Amino acid sequence: MRIPWRFLALLAGAFVFLFPFYYMLVGSLQTEPDPSIRGAFPDPGNLTGHNYSEINAEINLGRSLLNSGVFTGGVILGTLVFGVLAGYALARLQFRGRGAVFSLMLLVQVVPFQLLTIPLYVLIVRSYGLADSYLGMIAPFAINSTAVFVFRQYFLQLPEELFDAARIDGAGELNILWRIAVPLVKPALLTGVLMTFIGPWNEFLWPFLITKQQDLQPLAVSLSNYLTTVSARAANPFGAVLAGACVLAAPAVTLFIIFQRRFISSSLESGVKG
Amino acid sequence: MKRKKLTAALLALGLAGTTVACGGSDGGGDADAAATARGEITIWMSNNKEEVAWGKQMVAAWNTAHPDQKVTAQEIPTGKSSEEVIGAAITAGNAPCLIFNTSPASVSQFQKQGGLVALDSFADGKSYVESRTGKSAEQYKSTDGKYYQLPWKANPVMIFYNKLAFAKAGIDTVKPPLSTYDEFLATSRKVVAAKGAKFAIYPAPSNEFFQSWFDFYPLFAAETGGKQLVADGKSQFASEEGKKVAAFWRTLYADKLASQEKYTGDSFVDGTAAMAIVGPWAIATYKGKVEWGAVPVPTSAGKPAAETYTFSDAKNVAMYSACKNRGTAWDVLKFASSKEQDGKLLEGSGQMPLRADVAGTYPEYFAKNPDYKQFADQAARTVEVPNVPNSITIWQNFRDAYSKSVIFGQEDPGAALDGAAQKVDQLAAQS
Amino acid sequence: MSQQRVLSPRRVERAGGQPPPTRRRGLLGGVFGKHPIGSAFVTPYLVFLAAIFAYPLGFAVYMSFHDYFFTAPGAIVDRPFVGFDNYAAVLSDPAVRRAFGNVGIFLLINVPLTVGLSLVLAFALNSAIRWRTFFRVSYYVPYVAASVAVVGVWLFLFNADGLVNRVLGPLAPDPSWLVNSKLAMPTIAIYVTWKQLGFFILLYLAALQNVSKDLYEAASMDGAGRLKSFWNVTVPGVRPATTLVVLLATVTGANLFTEPYLLTGGGGPDGASASPVLIMYQRGIEQGNPDVGSAIGVLLVIGVLLLALIERRFVGREGR
Lengths: 274, 431, 320
What we know:
The complex is a heterotrimer. Chain A is mostly helical.
């Protein structure tokens, strides 16, 4: 009998990875915090959904989720449309200034957001007048430079022959991009989407700076406000914090579960043969 | 080859940036016209539950009486990011008229930015502030002698103790021996040894600039009989008294009576610590979870409670220069800090309005809530953070030195305080 | 045509990674490049950069050369040009130097660990094993959860008498992990590696899709065992992804802010876990000295760019 080493190793790894998250989940369901080791395996008597209902009572979960959706959706849209174009151009098209654009993209990624926050805020609020708006929230994140980098990298992996053949056939670049390149890098696109999703979804400071109106604030902001104030009063403050975190993480995990199957792309052969 | 392109890109960006930056800014507002202008205003409050409740009724009351000068209230969180939010708003010019969550430590910075309106610019400004708060209003004056903040409410810091934990260790829960350092240490050892709690007291050991307000500063205020960290442009904390305070805390950490590690949650509520050093706002959190008692902070030789000072942990109200309708803002401010509204704040949150003689002004409240009376008494003897330039940098430098020497024991506390004193003297001397 | 598809690994690597060295010149010649439409493709991105980042970035550089602080609009203050004073002050500050050193330690631990673990795990997760979805989700989940909350659990686990120390027993370090000058930064490095691994696994998973199965067949026909084929087929085959992973891990590591802030409350014992961005935040935003903050920021950017250049020299070999 073959010992499934790989499987066991993966299982051990998964355990290590999941354990803190599992603890988060368990902790969020407890009535009283149990900081001992036994708390990791709670007795059913200590379990409750109370922490979640408390959050629901304090924050308008529906509205916050909607705002998060708009914010994150806008960013993903911008990145998918314009970022893919840019990544493709950087990878496969030779045009004047390509090197400079690449350097700029690298530069923008390297610069920490904290360096830019206040001037950026002044720019967006004063010069562009975008305070208290979704557009103001989305603006600094509209095209994720890291995603552009990722797209470029995967477009680079495609063999040159593919493009030569298409160009000889007289296809325009946009056509080549849309019909040939994009289908082949679907996993990269998905990675890009998932990666672009996390930033705005978990972002607290920028949306909060842009708007103080509570009905425009995304979930991360509402939860954060809840955590800093109300949770101290909750029956189980630590549990309330964890419940908030689980609520924030749930949509992202769900999305991933749904899409992770699509990671197997049509293999390269099918694109090149015939 | 790549580096050339990189430099080119950087230069291009820099050039683009500077040209845009040189774009004009608005002219200054007419301060005088604004001082009497009336109309709608916006205010910000902290999102502390009780304060929000108070704020809502205050705004509703005002709006009913003055429908042509409507007030809109928004919440901003207390805590680390509130300064950043206010600073950004000042820079962008969209700060609200009043912020009921202005930390006294930030006032010198906001003032330097040109973000605050001097209350003295109103005819009755100075007199109102001083008659409401009394003598301790002095501490809230800025270096130019004007008031850029209205001292609003305080949370005088005292020592809370867990009666059950103390009872378990056989310590008197009505008058526990906590007034001298020796007594405090002995009691701490007793309660930990008897497993009343894992730690005797658990102030936050983290490095944020404001944490010293809840370990070193209250005891320093008590030990020196009311001195601030910096006075007359010179640091005061490297004195003999300051070093005694530092040595006391050092002992607590060295004997593992306090912990060096960050705690998630509230250690006093969880029973991990037998004592807490905090103000009356926390009472709402403790209700039903901990049976508590409170005493003034200890001093080296012991002082009667009527002579012990402490840190005020005040939150004030400031008027911001982006405000157009300052006439209304000033009226709202006076309304919100009137005797009636202060009383509602007191009843709703248990925090002490910074009024002269709080106990005498609201005798019914204190008759109903005798627990709070000691805080009202203590509120008469509080020390504020010094209103000096570079106030936050000063506190950060102090905290760095304190953390290294007292909390982590990597340097002698006396030497660390001396080193910090030199830096702080330089910082306080800048303008 | 199909006969050409049976390629040896090296040829595929070259074809997948580098274009042929010479090209015929297009009609427009070299003026706009062979594919001038590329400029059109990148224009929206460039407009975005110019509209959003040009001003703040240029402004930050500008601030670093002046004695600057933010003011309300209309306030008139003196902002003299001070040349390199801010840089000199920053470079001679031991706290800042320590912070840069800390980030160096962090990168030394985090980057190799990330590259190695994520490739191995991605490889394992790519094959058909039972419970594949479960495994993929479990490795991804930490990446998704907001640090603010996960940190609480981590703090609890690595407490002086938290789970980890109890399991280690006598081996537990004496000032415990996060309050130990020497262990604080490594602990944070492990935390961040754990948290971000999911993302890098994704990157490798996507790259692995493009490593042709024919190559593995060819390799096993040549008699290579699993380890050898991993080393000779997989690793070269995902080289562009490796470059990406190394660069991204370096950049995110250098810009570390949230984790030191949350895990050690701003700097840890004697600044042992402070990061440059943390100091930049403290000095620039909290203390109102954005000129000094910007100087630190600019130095950080330059440092990372240099590091990126070095890394590309060693790891990257996919053209430009």
